[in-house]
Design goal:
mainly alpha, two-stranded antiparallel ribbon, 4 strands
Length: about 450
């Protein structure tokens, strides 16, 4: 309580300030679009600032989480996307909140592993085959890693954690609905029919790769599936099944083979680690029905997988392995995969030629070529440490089902990373950061239980 002010006085002051803000907004709004925008800013900026100071995980971070599936569409300038701005604001907000309340959680094992990995990546600038590509790649890794480190050190309550899971689920369902609308809203005169079409989300000059779009739905699918399994509310189960059906249908329309298999990984893991086997079978059947009801090129692409070498991936990996053999210990430097690939492209037999300057389409191949065996070991340490941090939640812990959900999402993420590069995508780091936050929730509950038992 502020000295000299009682609760009623503080409420009166707050109401007076709100009245002044609204009055200014009304005065500014009488006129042009610019004045209306200024009026909105007058009202929104103070409220947003207050929310960021009091609950930074709910604003702006929850808003960032909500927009992650739409990342590449939200271009605002040459600076980047709206999610990038929200990510930066979220990082500063949570760090300032920790300093203000003087409460920072102890670093996790995964944080130490990530620091070691990034240190090696920074060191690779000294021997990088392409200094320009390395300098361009490092800021992406550093920004996402710094946001992860800030979130992994920010105490989070169970309620905030639930809100963040809800924002992730709502964002995934909204992205699925938007994608389905775009797919069926397009004329198919050029494509011929739906069986050869593929969902590519576009907004102006911005597009989202179909594989990345589908992979971004894996975490929301895991969240909504777990909610559907454990809720006893019939309406909640119905809403969950509808949400799962929409997202699985969007995955099918994207014709992403690795994303569909990633959904299968989540289903199998839930059948193995949860007690909801019958419910999981019913939910899986509903998802399968939704997938079969939509017409897309998914099954055609599965049929051509062998004939095309996985859309040229086998040839890409062959070139990557040839480059890896020549610098297997230290690699060619972070971000230098394309340079190394072009150097050995014509020196490797091409059964399914992809072309010049190919992306790696495999996280192990990428890290092996760019950072060598040392980089692979550090990356493995990071993922093992992430699972180890979750291991503090035992089977008798009330958060055990949340642990299963996070492990399923992480395993699915690792699985799809064997077919596409995603380490610089926000949805991948969202899964990893949420796992770190679940650890903090469990530690907080353990501390409260100890305090309750103390005399």
């Amino acid at each position: 309580m502020v000295k000299g002010f009682t609760r009623p006085r503080l409420d009166a002051v707050s109401l007076a300030m709100a009245a002044v803000i609204v009055l200014c907004a009304l005065l500014l709004a009488k006129g042009s679009t610019t004045r209306i925008a200024l009026a909105v800013a007058v009202v929104a900026v103070p409220l947003a600032t207050y929310a960021a100071l009091k609950r930074p995980l709910l604003f702006p971070y929850a808003l960032y989480v909500l927009f992650v599936p739409f990342d590449n569409l939200l271009l605002i300038s040459s600076f980047g996307t709206l999610t990038k701005v929200l990510g930066i604001l979220s990082g500063f907000a949570v760090i300032f909140w920790c300093l203000r309340v003087k409460h920072i959680a102890l670093p996790s094992h995964a944080t130490y592993a990530l620091v070691a990995f990034l240190s090696w990546a920074l060191a690779s600038t000294y021997w990088a085959a392409s200094g320009t590509e390395t300098i361009a790649a490092l800021p992406q890794y550093l920004s996402l890693a710094l946001l992860y480190a800030a979130l992994a050190a920010t105490p989070v309550t169970l309620r905030e954690f639930r809100w963040l899971l809800g924002a992730t689920a709502v964002g995934g369902i909204a992205a699925a609905v938007y994608g389905i609308h775009q797919f069926y809203g397009k004329p198919f005169d050029v494509a011929g029919n739906l069986l050869t079409a593929r969902l590519v989300i576009q907004a102006g000059n911005a597009t989202i790769d179909p594989n990345q779009f589908a992979d971004a739905l894996l975490f929301p699918i895991a969240i909504v599936t777990m909610f559907t399994l454990r809720t006893r509310w019939l309406l909640g189960k119905t809403a969950g099944i509808v949400g799962i059906a929409l997202m699985v249908a969007a995955v099918a329309l994207s014709a992403s083979r690795e994303a569909l298999l990633g959904v299968g990984v989540i289903v199998v893991y839930y059948l193995w680690r949860t007690r909801y086997r019958l419910e999981m079978a019913i939910v899986a059947a509903c998802g399968l029905a939704a997938m079969l009801l939509v017409q897309s090129s998914l099954w055609l692409r599965f049929g051509k997988a062998i004939a095309t070498g996985g859309a040229g991936r086998l040839s890409i990996w062959a070139v990557g392995f040839e480059a890896f053999k020549h610098r297997w210990l230290t690699g060619y430097g972070m971000g230098s995969f394309s340079t190394a690939y072009n150097d050995y492209y014509l020196k490797t037999r091409q059964g399914y030629p992809y072309g010049w300057s190919s992306p790696p389409h495999n996280l192990l191949v990428q890290i092996g070529v760019e950072l060598g065996v040392i980089g692979i070991v550090l990356l493995a340490w990071f993922f093992v440490a992430t699972f180890r941090d979750l291991a503090i939640i035992g089977r008798d812990h009330p958060r055990y089902e949340d642990r299963v959900m996070m492990e399923a999402a992480l395993i699915a993420l690792i699985f799809v990373s064997m077919f596409i590069g995603l380490f610089t995508y926000k949805y991948a780091w969202l899964i990893i950061a949420t796992a770190a936050q679940l650890r903090l929730v469990a530690l907080n509950e353990r501390a409260r239980q100890r305090a309750a038992r103390a005399p």
